[in-house]
Design brief:
- The chain is built from 9 helices and no strands.
- The protein is mostly helical and 184 residues long.
- α2 runs antiparallel to α3, α2 packs across α4 and α3 crosses α4 (71-103).
Length: 184
């Protein structure tokens, strides 16, 4: 109970740009989070990398962080979601490489073609990031719940205390903005 209170106080100080609080929280929770991550993904390197990303993100967004009662549980959930996204991305890459290997295309691709493909993928990521910045906080939240967490409109409405119609309309409006940005 004492550490929970200590973490809560450090979190509150972190929210006010206190670097010492951030580093103290990092020191206290880094290894427990890495150990938790290893249990989730069975890979120490990925767990450590994802934990680093979690702490980097909370520092980058420290001014926008919400109050949290149980900091360790919050960070575990954050880490678990990040690990699941990393594992899904790795699975997609492995599937793509397997499919490309089956067709033999990647073996025939020149270095220049490979670089162009990587750069075009980076351009798409940049366009997506830029387009997402045009969305409101609520639109981003609902897009994330729908397409990254895979929730139904009913689940989204329940989780965000909205009607199903409002959730649907918000996502629809966000998708219109994203389409417009990608077609511009």
């Amino acid at each position: 109970m004492q550490s929970k209170l200590s973490h809560h106080l450090l979190w509150e100080r972190l929210r006010t740009s206190d670097k010492d609080a951030f580093f103290d929280l990092y020191k206290e929770l880094y290894y427990p989070l890495v150990n938790f991550g290893i249990r989730v993904c069975a890979d120490a390197d990925i767990a450590g990398e994802a934990t680093d990303q979690v702490f980097t993100t909370i520092w980058e967004k420290h001014e926008a962080l919400n109050r949290v009662d149980n900091v360790e549980a919050y960070l575990r959930t954050f880490l678990k979601r990040k690990l699941l996204r990393i594992m899904e991305r790795k699975r997609k890459i492995n599937d793509a490489l397997f499919n490309a290997g089956a067709e033999g295309d990647w073996m025939e691709m020149s270095y220049e073609e490979f670089i162009v493909k990587v750069q075009s993928d980076e351009l798409v990521r940049y366009q997506l990031k830029t387009a997402l910045e045009k969305l409101t906080f609520r639109q981003k939240q609902l897009i994330h719940l729908k397409f990254f967490d895979g929730l139904s409109y009913e689940q989204i409405a329940e989780q965000t205390n909205q009607t199903i119609k409002t959730a649907y309309n918000t996502i629809y409006d966000a998708l219109k903005i994203l389409r417009k940005e990608f077609n511009a």
